[in-house]
Amino acid sequence: MAEIKKVTLQNGKTRWRFVIDAGRDAQGKRKQLTVTCDTQKEAKDEYARLRNERKTGQLILPNKITVAQLIDEYLNSKEDDLEETTIDGYGNRLVHARDYFGQIRLQELTEDDVEQWVAWLLVAARRRGGPKGTGLRATTVDGVLGRFRAALRYAKRKRYVGRNVAEDIAVPRKARKQDRRDNQRAKPWNVVEVKEFVLGAREDRLFAPLLLSLMGMRPAEVAGLRWTEDVDFTAGTLAAGANTRTMLRNATTIEKDAKTEAGDRTLPLPDPVRLALLNFRVLQEAERAAAGEDYVDSGYLFVDEIGQALTTRDLREAAYRLMERLELRRVRLYDVPAQLLDFPRGERRPGRRSRRLGRPHERVVHEEEVRASDGRRHGRRGDSAERTSRGVRGAARTPDVRKSEKSLIAESPKRPLTCDGADVRRARQRL
């Protein structure tokens, strides 16, 4: 047992002090901890506690690490494990913790501090995306708190702190309910709206990329498609996720492969999409002939009139412009129900996730959507062959809706090209 010494201070007061071994550092140098207490009993109790924690491997040495330093170290530790865009997203979520806690020492952080921080996030933390100084949405605060909680778990694993003071902190339930009432999520398009979008997009230059979005492909996957490596017209397949082009803060384009194995997948090409892609390829060859040496041979599928690769932002803006022109509800491309084109047979069941095609973690298809699309619920009857007919599936089974997308494309008027007929003929011969 270490000796507990009585120490007399200059002002005449007495203290009790002891020194205990705390192991060795990374260089093998012995570390010691000096503890001073007001009474001998407090010193004995503290020595017993530290000795037990050292024996059980739970001893946490005092340090001067601040919350800001922890956040920097936490983000640096993720560089070899996560992609650049993901790390940037982590940094965005931790910026409020860095600003609020700043130079507070990590070991001095308490649960009360975290609770007050959460309350501040809900009422005054907004910096952009709305009136400055107002509160963030409860869902946003939940994500911010979750990432800070993960950073504190890292600190606990590195033995900077003995416990995670944010582990049991949560966004108040009242704030969650109020957020749901104030920000109701827009319903995804129904089948009729998808049909109107497809019909209205036929004369758009980007008809083929927009159809790929309806297949459940992410915008980054559409932007990263390459004609030679990813599109196989002979086999009728498409390599989704083999190459993606995503945007970092809407400013920098990052090209990479799929994040997970599930994201790297091969999709069959329905006839409507295959025909649209063939027409898009012919149009690009005609544009190449018209532009001459000014044409950029990027090899990407999603390009502008002179061959320059477009981005996910361009795809979204093109879709939003089309929605406005067609007077359709503006929804995210993610909220357009996937697999509404003619894919291999398979029933879409209410409340079940489908991994046949499209996004590997596709959203749940709700029962009302199934009722609207095929009339299989609540006593509605009809010919089963008609309900699974090829093409876009419509809620109202009119002859117009039952037409396949293949016939819709064939009947659509040809889009006027920005080049003459000779260029088109030469482009078709090259293909």
Poorly predicted sequence stretches spanning 5 or more consecutive residues: 342-419
- Globally, the shape reads elongated
- Largest sheet: number of strands, sense, barrel closure: 3 strands, antiparallel
Second CATH tier, the architecture of the largest domain: Orthogonal Bundle
The class by helix and strand makeup works out as: mainly alpha
Strand order, sheet with most strands: 1-2-3
Count of β-strands = 8
Helical proportion, percent range = 40-55%
Quickly count the helices.
17
> What is the quaternary state of this protein?
single chain
CATH topology of the largest domain: hpI Integrase, Chain A
The Cα radius of gyration reads: 31 Å
* Ends apart, CA distance between termini: 87 Å
| SSE pattern, N- to C-terminal | EEEHHHHHHHHHHEEEEEHHHHHHH
Strand proportion, as a percent range, falls in: 5-15%
Secondary structure layout plus pairing:
Elements: E1 5-8, E2 14-24, E3 30-37, H1 40-56, H2 67-77, H3 84-101, H4 111-124, H5 138-157, H6 173-182, H7 191-201, H8 207-214, H9 219-224, H10 227-230, E4 231-232, E5 237-240, E6 244-248, E7 252-256, E8 265-268, H11 271-291, H12 312-325, H13 367-374, H14 384-387, H15 399-402, H16 405-411, H17 421-430
Antiparallel strand pairs: 1-2, 2-3, 4-5, 5-8, 6-7
Helix pairs in contact: 2-3, 3-5, 8-11, 11-16, 11-17
